[in-house]
Specification:
By secondary structure, this protein is an alpha/beta fold. The protein contains 6 helices and 10 strands, in the order βββαββαβαααβαβββ. Bound molecules: adenosine-5'-diphosphate (ADP) and magnesium ion.
Amino acid sequence: MKLEARDLTKNFPRGKRRGQIFTAVRPLDFSLASGSLAVIAGRSGSGKSTLLNMLAGMLTPTSGSVHVAGAELYSLSEAARSRLRNEKIGLVPQGHAALRSLTVLENVLLPSILYSHEPPPQQRALELLELVDIASLQDAKPSELSGGELRRLAIARALLLHPQVVLADEPTAGLDADNTIKVLELLRGAADAGAAVLVVTHEDEATQFADRTFSMDAGTLTAQTPPANAGQSA
Ligand SMILES: Nc1ncnc2c1ncn2[C@@H]1O[C@H](COP(=O)(O)OP(=O)(O)O)[C@@H](O)[C@H]1O
Ligand SMILES: [Mg+2]
């Protein structure tokens, strides 16, 4: 299983009366293989989140296609796309995305509640909370968490249903060195267990966990030479 994007672009209207067009993502092909971890590094404003959100089924491209599990995301109805996304894609969005009225544990369990008729995988949720080191906060509300703890909650939630594709937007933003490594090891572990994982970042710690690295600059994606440790799991 993998994700495959072809000729993907995104333009945004800009300027006075939105008469001009700003190209955030220039035509690119990108694919993500099962069992591997790719990192896209690039500075702020280079188009990383725009690309990731298109890959995640969250932002309609100006042109091009994104295939996940044999389906083209933007040819599906909104409802079918949401269902596929929830089932196959674990998304760690940029910033904070916890529901304030739910506890930490309930927030992690959210993907299982949306469409599933099965009992929620409580044990898996608790294991993930342990792995990201916030198990003691399981009954707290998101408003009681620090920024770094909220990031870790988002990662636990994204991995809950063992998604085939994991897309993480700046997953280690605001984390200390220990937790940065912990989170990257967790994402590496998801890849080793068979997921296709993409980490988008403006930092460079993540590249040492990657099989492939890319850089993004002004909407253009360029493949870098593989890091020395690539192949450790290939
Ligand atoms: N909804 C939007 N409308 C207009 N411009 C946008 C929108 N989203 C992003 N952009 C612009 O696209 C560019 C890339 O943004 P983004 O993908 O968020 O970059 P990155 O994640 O690399 O920091 C930026 O110049 C940003 O201002
Ligand atoms: Mg971004």
